[in-house]
Amino acid sequence: MRQQLNFWVIGGDLRQAKMAELLEEDGHTVHTFALDRLHDLSEGVQTETELAGAVLADCVVLPLPAAGEGGLLNAPLAESSHPLSQILDALRPGQVICAGRVTAPLQALAEARGLTLYDYFAREELAVANAVPTAEGAIQIALEELPITLHGARVLVIGYGRLGKLLAHRLSALGARVSVAARRCADLAWIEAYGYGVEHSEQLKGWLCSYDLVINTVPVELLDETALADLHPGCLVIDLASKPGGVDFEAARRLGVKAIWALSLPGKVAPVTAGKSIKTTIYNIWNELGDSL
Known about the structure:
The protein is α/β, with parallel strands linked by helices. The chain is built from ten helices and twelve strands. Strands 3-2-1-4-5-6 form a six-stranded parallel β-sheet, with helices on one face. Strand 11, helix 8 and strand 12 (about 260) form a beta-alpha-beta unit. The relative contact order is 0.13.
């Protein structure tokens, strides 16, 4: 992207903060709002306390996810809360407004104001890029929490999407004995072809007793109380699925199963890489809009 643009980065976590710095390094004018708790942003990034100038932005970037609880902006680094309706009221139709994981209520708020939201989280390139730090973060958690090495450990990865593929590959490279659970026949065939153990995700009950580590990537509750009761003592469960997740955590507590719901790992373990991936995706959206702007 060669032209200089006016960006407003509103809300979010370290991913958005790092993205703002990267945009400024590329020569753009960058304003941030609702990132108040960060005091070490690069000097070229303009920290704002009001939204008055946001209407002049060429591109507005909302966080991932854009919506927090109760209709508020997702802004864990803000000193105060900001209703999403207030944020959208400060914008104008015709702006490129990029948001992560756009919910139906947020979409309705935008449409009522004549605004178009571009969901960067729905982009394949970002989904693939995010899978890398998520897989690394999950492995980091496993290394910290397990009393055994991953080398030789019996590991089950549930799901064979982008993240499941990367996890199985990396865990296998570390010497783990990897099995993968999936539902689709094509996925099961590929799992077997790569030499992993094969499990059917809808037939897990009764087949979980031999694993040292179970990592779920599917946002469907496959690990309910019956499935969790099959695990042998000391088995670690890591849930990487977005809400509603794939683990009955209340049942896990009752059964004494150590289960960790590891959400938003890219922003926690690799915020610079995650911010760069979002920036690249925003550029792609802008370039694809082209003459329609």
